Amino acid sequence: MAVDPWDSLSAWLIESMYAKPVGFIIELGPSHYIAERDDAKVVCAQVVVLSDGVMMLRRSRTELGHLLLADYSSAGLRLDEWQHDGHFDDCTDGYLFTKDIRLIARTCIAWFRINSGINTTDEIGCSYRLADELPRFS
User: Fold this and answer.
1) pLDDT digit string (tens) for 27-48?
2) Which of 9, 27, 66, 82 is the most buried (most CB within 10 A)?
3) Which contacts qualify for 34-37: CB closer than 8 Å, 24 or more apart?
4) pTM, whole model, 2 decimals?
């Protein structure tokens, strides 16, 4: 029985986001895309880990910059409701706050399969980073 590469990508994304520290960022987009060189609109996704197990998923048509969040608190955020209010002053098409890692993985995969002309999982690039920590002394 053949393994569906999209199911494998979903499992990998779930594993990659599970139990990550606050401030962790994972970004996905077409592997051939270079923002400084390509003018074409593409689907890009960014996941930022917030507090209390909440993650923010953002979608755009070009590479997303890293937000300078005042904090990573999830208090008062509307969960599991797609937002497209233009809150972020960049190329963000919309965003979602959720605790559902599977929802994030499946949403990202659907965006790439349906809207960006990506035919195989090999055409998706990924990068991630951890939040910088300040030196603490007791």
Assistant:
1) 999 888 776 777 777 889 999 9
2) 9
3) 35/62, 35/63
4) 0.88
